[in-house]
Design goal:
- With 489 residues, the protein is mainly beta.
- It folds into three domains: 199 residues, Cupredoxins -  blue copper proteins (Immunoglobulin-like, Sandwich); 123 residues, Cupredoxins -  blue copper proteins (Immunoglobulin-like); 108 residues, Cupredoxins -  blue copper proteins (Immunoglobulin-like, Sandwich).
- Helices cover 5% and strands 41% of the residues.
- The chain has four helices and 37 strands.
- Strands 22, 23, 24, 26, 28, 29, 30 and 32 form an eight-stranded mixed β-sheet that branches. A six-stranded mixed β-sheet has the order 1-25-34-33-27-31. Strands 12-11-14-19-16-17 form a six-stranded mixed β-sheet, with no helix packed on it.
- A hairpin with a 2-residue loop joins strand 22 and strand 23.
- The longest helix has 10 residues.
- It is globular, with a radius of gyration of 22 Å.
- The structure holds CU-O-CU linkage and copper (II) ion.
- Copper (II) ion binds next to loops.
Length: 489
């Protein structure tokens, strides 16, 4: 037994620095191989990935607009510190401009957004990833993939146009399983261009600090003042690692948007349970009833009341058992591309098995039967229509997040979507489920496609989508000095 085990152990070792283009093997999904020389297996091209070819473009050059005065200009300072939640409790973690969640960024469609990240004292380094905003690749904020992490005393400027109205969030994508859990995040709202902004519009960002569930930084029940008949848009954001169970009491409601994309023809529903995937967002419209207040619950006795001042929380409402199924919610309409004529068809089959991950024995996640780092690199050409089947036989739920793109859910367990186009960037894939999604490869770069249970990502549930002809100048593991090295997960 010693020989084979020794062999497996060696094969599982990950070098201290490497290019994600050197990981695993290329999966062309039935489309043409990369004409630029190919993303060969690391066995042949090495951990640096394939050498650049003439005409290739570097991730570092796929930036947002270099010129132009920003319409929204924000400086965000990341800090490691003890701080107080808005509801008063002390937390040892990370802040942005002194608080967690960090400041909410509000922009309008068409705005040029500029954010300067300063790292005050986060010794591990930090970045900002714009979760759900399909920014140009070099603005995506992934340490070791789209930039180097910002060391203490350093800065990084992000510039992009706000193109799609909706609810998003930002978070560090450096040692993210720790930095996000401990507070290094905030929200972004992009309002429609001619902003018929609802009179009541509030972000309800849910995060659990040291086991304490909060909504927008407050534990317990907080109140948004409103009068009977008022409609309020509550922008639910799940920044935790587990699916968020949310429900509305004392009001019917509509789901206006999912992951920053409007639902077509959302109908009023009542007593339905919402499941917001880790990283996902849902904009929920509640109407203040004639008496009392509407209440949005997010479990663990954290809730938001929408109603008159002094409204009473009442007794703790029970969660409905019946789920709102987005597969059939709303009204169908054209999705803008034809998934039946896809140029690429990929599988993202998640399993689990006993083996060695970077020399550590354990029960690890697999993708298409392979363990990290031997994972697929999904290769596309710009303009391809892509179909991906995501299935899960791993015994756990995985909130799958593809960077830089939105995808349309085509089916679940063989049942075709029948409601509004269900457009996602974060999809809860439960054990034994199979989803088919489709998207257009319209944003060149090298993009993470990973589980947003960030502990699972840290345990190797991370693949990438690469456009042919794009080269990777950054290195995971690269030493940045002062104790920081690129470590996206
Ligand atoms: Cu919310 Cu890879 O990120
Ligand atoms: Cu997972």
């Amino acid at each position: 037994m010693i020989a084979p085990l020794g062999y497996l152990w060696n094969a599982s070792r990950v070098p201290s620095t490497y290019s994600v283009m050197g990981m695993g093997y290329a999966d062309y999904g039935g489309g043409p191989a990369d004409e630029h020389g190919g993303h060969a297996e690391h066995a042949s091209s090495g951990w640096d990935g394939p050498p650049p070819q003439p005409g290739d473009v570097s991730v570092a050059d796929l930036t947002g607009p270099a010129d132009g005065t920003p319409d929204v200009d924000v400086t965000l300072t990341a800090r490691r510190e003890r701080f107080s939640l808005a509801s008063g409790e002390d937390v040892d973690g990370y802040t942005v401009n002194g608080s967690s969640p960090g400041p909410e960024i509000r922009a309008r469609v068409g705005d040029l957004v500029q954010v300067t990240l300063l790292n005050d004292n986060v010794t591990g380094g930090a970045t900002l990833h714009w979760h759900g905003i399909d920014v140009p690749n070099a603005e995506d904020g992934v340490a070791g993939v789209t930039q180097d992490a910002v060391p203490v005393g350093g800065r990084h400027v992000y510039r992009f146009f706000a193109e799609d109205a909706g609810t998003y969030w930002y978070h560090s994508h450096q040692v993210s399983h720790e930095q996000v859990r401990k507070g290094l995040f905030g929200t972004v709202v992009v309002e429609p261009e001619n902003g018929s902004r609802a009179e009541l519009d509030a972000v309800a960002v849910v995060h659990t600090y040291d086991g304490r569930r909060t909504v927008s930084g407050r534990s317990g029940v907080s109140t948004i003042e409103a009068v009977p008949g008022d409609r309020t848009r509550l922008r639910l954001v799940n920044t935790d690692n587990s699916p968020l169970r949310a429900w509305v009491t004392n009001s019917h409601f509509r789901v206006l948007a999912v992951d920053g994309r409007d639902v077509n023809g959302p109908t009023e529903v009542e007593r339905k349970l919402l499941i917001v995937p880790a990283g996902g967002r849902m904009d929920v419209e509640v109407t203040v009833p004639e008496s009392g207040a509407a209440r949005l619950d997010v479990g663990a006795e954290a809730a938001v009341l929408v109603g008159p001042k002094g409204g009473r929380p009442g007794k703790l409402p029970v969660a409905p058992t019946d789920r709102l199924d987005l597969l059939s919610y709303g009204t169908p309409m054209a999705i803008g591309f034809d998934p039946t004529s896809a140029e690429r068809r990929f599988d993202y089959r998640i399993g689990r098995r006993i083996g060695f991950l970077d020399g550590r024995p354990g029960f690890w996640w697999t993708v298409n039967g392979h363990m990290f780092p031997d994972l697929p690199m999904y290769v596309v050409d710009e303009g391809d229509v892509v179909r991906m089947t995501i299935s899960n036989k791993s015994g756990d739920v995985h909130p799958m997040h593809l960077h830089g793109h939105h995808a349309v859910v085509l089916s679940r367990d063989g049942v075709a979507a029948s409601g509004s186009p269900w457009v996602i960037d974060s999809l809860n894939v439960e054990d034994d489920e199979t989803y088919e999604i489709g998207f257009v490869a319209d944003n060149p770069g090298i993009w993470m496609d990973h589980c947003h249970n960030l502990d699972h990502a840290d345990d190797g549930l991370v693949a990438h989508l690469a456009y042919s002809g794009v080269t990777e100048p950054y290195r995971v593991g690269k030493d940045l000095g002062g104790g920081a090295a690129n470590q996206p997960e």
